[in-house]
Amino acid sequence: MSLSKLQKRKRFGELIGMIYSIAIYTVLYIPVLVMMIFSFNDQRYNYYWNGFTTEWYSKLFSNSTVIGSLWYSIIIAVLATVISVTIATIGALGLRKYEFRGRKFINNMLFIPIIVPEIVLAVALLIIFMKVGLALGMGSILLGHCTFCIPYAVVTIKGRISGDGYSLEEASMDLGASRIQTFFNVTLPSIMPGVMSAAFLSFTLSIDDVVMSNMLAGAKNSTLPVLILSMNKSGITPDINALTTIMILVIVIAMILNNKIKNALSKRKKAEGIL
Amino acid sequence: MKKTMSILLTMILIMGLFTGCTGTNANSESDKAASSTELNIYMWQQYISDDLIAKFEEENNAKVNLSYMSDNADAITKLTAGGGQEYDLIMTCDAYMESLVDGGYVEKINFENIPNASNINDSYWTAKEYCVPYLMNYIYIIYNKDTSPVEIKSYNDLINPALKGQIASIDGARNLFPIALVALGYDPNSVNESEIAEAYEWLVKYNDNVVAYGNAEQNLTNGTASVAFTYDGNASWAMSELGKDNNLVIADFENDPVQLGFDLYVIPKGAKHVDLAEKFLNYITDPEVMAANLVEYPYSCPNDVAVQAASEAYRNDPARDFDYKQNVFFQEDVGEAITIYNDYYQKLKVGE
User: Fold this and answer.
1) Does any CB of chain B come closer than 8 Å to the CB of residue A127?
2) CA closest to B214 among chain A residues
3) Burial (Cβ within 10 Å: 0-12, 13-18, ≥19) of residue B214
4) Is there a contact between B67 and A217 if contact means CB atoms under 8 Å apart?
5) B172 in A contact zone (CB under 8 Å)
């Protein structure tokens, strides 16, 4: 009797858990789903369903402005990621490992670009760039993105550096490795997960960004989010839905592949371990 | 001997310097005379015909780079931060002109190079030396005469409780407060805090009747709303979307004025391709060119000659067929009072 009561309680708990996760996922993904469905809508304005068409997909690929700004965004995001992660890795190691005057101060100052509203930072950068005579364009957007990517990246990487890494480094140098060899063969692999998550974070921040890019974009090109925002006055056309649908599909496929590869690798490792 | 040699050499050097100078001078002048091959424009998206831009590029053997703003404030921020020289033409609206001219952010325009500007109706043209009006917008009320429970003849009809959940409206402090101020009998550009506070109370009632802000014309055509407070160009879209026998009518205002706003081009201080910018302004004020543009973007146009040259469909557009076109007010710079507007606007949006 008491067992069945326990089972009942367990089943009830499972039910609650299921309803909870369904609710969460519904809230997260229904808007995305609606957006994807409307990419097939046979109407210029996405207000009600009018009929099925794939016209917007062909329109998208002939729309050179949208495709151009997508590439522009991707190039900026990749460059911003590489630059920020490089600087952040060096910074995180330095701030973690070495004692020097003002370390605490610098550590705290890192949070300022994170806390300051982005629009304030963007206008401040715009004013500085104009005073210095830096032309607006890819360079200015890149500098802007790095200013807010670096602090996030430093914080992420710093969390990954643990104290016991130091003895490994000492051991490596004891065994005759130079500092550079030690860095690339011991230190970097040990913080690699942190570096990777910092890289993904920077990439996401950069490719999503609209406030900074909007202020710092030059006359010739603008990033995709800025372009989409500027469409808001006259209504966003379904070819943007089409583009977003493709982007989401690419990400989903990439994630599935990533999991598959990881699984295959861990299986192989296990197999090797048994041997 | 040595002395004379050195004097001679010095003279040669100095002469060389001078010739060098004149040389560079001549160069920079010829640079100026040679026409630019690039024109950078910052404006609204979906507001000018791509075909006309392509034709301009072909005629002048130049590349036009269009970049788009998402808000009028974008252009103002870029200009005031000193980013103006990145562009050759920037679109802004009449409400900002006074501050832009006072701040010295825009160049005086040489109208000798823009003879077509004479086609533009003078009576609408403020800050004439510094800008060229492009298109204009009446912000008025249209409603569905079959489904609207109220016949609208003034702004005060909009706060009739019978209209609850019936109004689709454009947004923005400087679009909403003026109608409340007019309804209360005040100056639409009031800087008096107690008047603005009263206008806020009026707008709270208006807010109760509003079903959605933004995309007013679409909410009207799909039946979400029966009344829309919107731009005439968007009303035109709604009317043509619903076909010839649509039941949309422009509110027959008896006394209240409606807001008229301009989008206009300015040449920012330090623009690098002024010659091409002037050519473009002359091109876009050409009656034939503007008439072709109006087919694609049927907004009201201050270019009288172009309106005459425009298609019959444009000239007979029911969205521009109302008889209080002269009874308008303009958005003016309210100076410091803008913070009062913003405070009450936020209160309106977020609640107290």
Assistant:
1) yes
2) A233
3) middle
4) yes
5) no
Q: Is B18 on the interface with A (CB under 8 A)?
A: no
The answer to whether A136 contacts chain B (CB < 8 Å) is: yes
Q: What top-level class would CATH report for the domain A64-274?
A: mainly alpha
Residue A228: alpha-carbon gap to chain centroid:
19
* pLDDT tens string A7-63: 888 889 999 999 999 999 999 999 999 889 988 888 776 667 778 888 889 888 888
CA distance B280 to B39: 9
DSSP labels, B289-332:
HHHHHHHHS--B-SBHHHHHHS-HHHHT-GGG--TTTTSEE---
Q: How far apart are CA A110 and CA B79, in angstroms?
A: 30
pLDDT in tens, A219-251: 888 899 999 888 877 777 888 889 999 999 998
Superfamily of domain B137-260+318-350: Periplasmic binding protein-like II (3.40.190.10)
Q: Is B270 exposed, middle or buried (0-12, 13-18, 19+ CB in 10 A)?
A: middle
B153-196 tens-digit pLDDT:
999 999 999 999 999 998 888 889 999 999 999 999 999 999 99
Q: Which CATH number fits domain B38-135+261-311: 3.30.160.340, 3.20.20.105, 3.40.190.10, 3.40.50.300?
A: 3.40.190.10
Mutate which: A47, A72, A141, A212, vs B, most B CBs within 10 A = A47
- Domain ranges within chain A, ordered by starting residue: 64-274
Asked whether the beta carbons of residue B78 and residue A47 sit closer than 8 angstroms, the reply is no
Residues of A in contact with B81 (CB under 8 A): 123, 126-127, 130
Which helix H or strand E contains B15, and what residues bound it? helix B2-33
How many alpha carbons fall within 13 Å on the CB side of residue A33? 6
Is B176 in the A-facing interface, judged by CB distances under 8 Å?
A: no
Which residues of chain B neighbour A136 with C-beta distances below 8 Å?
83, 86
Residue intervals in chain B for CATH 3.40.190.10: 38-135+261-311, 137-260+318-350
**Using the beta-carbon criterion (under 8 Å), do B68 and A215 form an inter-chain contact?**
no
> What chain B residue is nearest to A126 in terms of C-alpha separation?
B81
